[in-house]
Amino acid sequence: MADFADKFQRAFLEGDRWKLYFKGLGLTLEVALFAAILGLVIGTVAALLRLGKTNDGKNTVGSFIAGVYIDVIRGTPSVVQLLIMWFIIMKNSTNGVLVASLSFGINSGAYVAEIIRAGILAVDKGQTEAGRSLGLSKAQTFLYIVFPQAVKNVLPPIGNEFIVLVKETAIVGYVSLSDLTRVANQVASRTYEAFFPLVGAAVIYFVIIKLMTIGLGILERRLRKSDHH
Amino acid sequence: MIIIKDLRKEFGDLKVLNGISYHIKKGDKIVIVGPSGSGKSTFLRCLNLLETPTSGRISFEGEIITDPKADLNRIRRHMGMVFQNFNLFNNLNILDNITLAPVKLKIKSREEAEEDAFRLLERIGLKDKASAYPYSLSGGQKQRIAIVRSLAMNPKLMLFDEPTSALDPEMVGEVLEVMRELANDGMTMVVVTHEMGFAREVGTKVLFMDEGVIVEENTPEEFFAHPKSPRLQDFLSKVL
User: Fold this and answer.
1) Spatial separation of the C-alpha atoms in residues B238 and B240, rounded to whole Å
2) Which of A46, B102, B166, B202 is the most exposed place for a label (fewest CB within 10 A)?
3) Residue A135 half-sphere exposure, CB side, CA atoms within 13 Å?
4) Digit-coded pLDDT (tens) for B79-126
5) What is the SS3 assignment for A25-73?
6) What is the count of structural domains for chain A?
7) Do the Cβ atoms of B104 and A144 come within 8 Å?
8) What does the pLDDT look like over A54-89, one tens digit per residue?
9) CATH number for the domain including A97?
10) Boundaries of domain holding A202
């Protein structure tokens, strides 16, 4: 028992190590937040491009480009993307947070694009027809009728994507960023004791994501006020 | 008001409309009946270009609306459409459903649009539903609101695509009643329906469509009393 307390003390208290975990968590959240915002923007644009059709029903050039982007990003591991960003594309940058945020944002954008595309397609075609039959333009119909309904459709899977994103940032250690996972790993190797640092990191991730889940649940319920469920 | 000339519509290999020509005059109440798959809904949806005809010509008040350069958004303002599945905007309450198009298209100010909306809702006895959302309404209520939503645009003509087919039987009457009043007010109407009673009572002309053509056209009295073509006789014997 004394041994247990001693290990706890070394993992978190000695030399104020607990501050390291929180600094690591800060970096994790920073990267995740920037990446989520970037992913949402890229994903929305990519989804709209992907759905673009010419007047005679053919795919547009934008649709093709968005399709290639989604294919390439989903077809390669995010670690590889991160390494390519760090060692090749932005090799002159010393701002690791920026590089990681960009890399994760571009990665997340592809998944968000598919979620939003599905959410838009799930809105009943009759809604569009009713809007158009009243004389509203394509853009007005989309903006006032289809998009608000699509947002409701996509909220649960987008929330899921954000959750995945927070946890996926655990690979930024590959480019020498000290996020929560890397800090825990460093403490473990310094103290020759893995249990408390790693379980501690796991608990912190869990709490963060539990809080996100609760927040998303509240948002979802608010948006559902015009729904029959 | 509308002149249709040799209208054809194909979906891939499927020929749905095989040359329809017809002249709809102001104040007409055209009722279109026919078996399912006869192309009557497609015909109606071609009139406001929700379906793009494969060939043929439609003119509305002298303007060729099948011309690729025609301004469909402007033309559609003058043609209300009521759908089988109501298609009220699920994300908007009833008042906003009615006022969205007139306000966004800058036809009315918000105050005007809301005033008109309340007057229309009062007419159909649903004023108390203004702030309700579509999900909380019955099918009959939804369809009556869908009708006044179209009326809020002050259309010159109304298209009805099987407006009572998705309703529970006890709600058909209330919707037909609103349509009857509209007809009495002099609205030009084109109605695709299976309600033979309505066709007989309200129609100025009844069309029988089958296999993408108008097989027979007549006044309601003659149409039901003395059907000429064997196909119409057969059809009427099944539905009456």
Assistant:
1) 6
2) B166
3) 24
4) 999 999 999 999 999 999 999 999 999 999 999 999 999 999 999 999
5) HHHHHHHHHHHHHHHHHHHHHHHHHHCCECCCCCECHHHHHHHHHHHHH
6) 1
7) yes
8) 777 788 999 999 999 999 999 999 999 999 999 999
9) 1.10.3720.10
10) 2-227
